[in-house]
Design goal:
By secondary structure, the protein is mainly α. The protein contains 15 helices and no strands.
Length: 257
């Protein structure tokens, strides 16, 4: 563990952001964490590894493109952070534990969109116009303009960066969770969180015609493996999401400064 600590500590900016997150209310650690080694002990190696990965990628893409309005980028990251926070709350509610992949997967699930914006911001604004003005869904609009979807772009990036298969599946299959062979429940959890953020008007140009959540593939997959979902008061749960949105704002402030 000390070798891992030393590697992380060679990046002062990453270390600072990691310690900010570790000491934040997001993880409710009782004693103050002052070193990366302490963070590993308190958070666990798997959780810390995923946090480091998420923070690193977030920082890399934070200012993704100067070709589009900063409000578009801010909306993207708020949606992504909200999805991660809601996925985390949802997994706790359902007593499912995904080693922080649900949070980091939620944070990065639409990284393909950000890559497309970075590649050609004005062209992606054409996608947004189709969604807003002609009621396209995001994938159909992307394929019309780019001839490829953000899921395909994101999955290619995940493979290029050699991200864990769990994250690759979330990024590539969050619209179609059943296509994930090994991590269907994880992908479905992130997808359900994604849909819940849409309900709370914290989406990012998905162009959804919002169906009843209980009719979505994500819900059916989770219900099949987690029967207690059927007894869950989803309406009450959605009202609890306000704290997740506050935590999203906190998380963004911790790692963007």
């Amino acid at each position: 563990m000390r070798d891992i600590s030393r590697v992380i500590e060679t990046d002062a900016s990453l270390t600072l952001k990691l310690l900010r997150v570790a000491n934040s209310p997001l993880y409710a650690i009782r004693s103050e964490v002052n070193t990366v080694h302490q963070a590993i002990i308190n958070l666990g190696l798997n959780r810390l590894t995923n946090i480091v990965l998420g923070v690193s990628i977030f920082s890399k893409f934070l200012l993704a493109s100067q070709q589009v309005s900063p409000k578009v980028i801010e909306r993207f990251w708020f949606h992504s952070s909200c999805t991660g926070m809601v996925a985390k709350s949802l997994s706790i509610k359902l007593n499912r534990f995904f080693k922080e992949y649900e949070f980091i997967g939620g944070l990065l699930h639409e990284i393909g969109k950000l890559a497309m914006i970075q590649f050609d911001g004005p062209k992606y604004m054409e996608v947004i116009k189709l969604i807003e003005n002609e009621h396209y869904d995001d994938i159909t609009a992307e394929k019309k303009i780019f001839e490829i979807s953000h899921c395909e772009v994101g999955e290619a990036i995940a493979k290029l960066w050699k991200l864990p298969k769990e994250m690759s599946d979330v990024i590539g299959f969050h619209h179609t969770p059943s296509q994930s062979e090994k991590f269907t429940d994880l992908v479905a959890t992130v997808r359900l969180a994604d849909l819940l953020t849409e309900l709370w008007d914290a989406g990012f140009y998905e162009g959804l015609s919002m169906a009843e959540l209980s009719e979505t593939d994500a819900w059916k997959i989770l219900l099949n493996h987690t029967p207690e979902l059927d007894a869950m008061d989803l309406e009450a749960f959605t009202f609890e999401l306000e704290q997740d949105f506050k935590n999203s704002t906190l998380f963004l402030s911790l790692i963007s400064s």
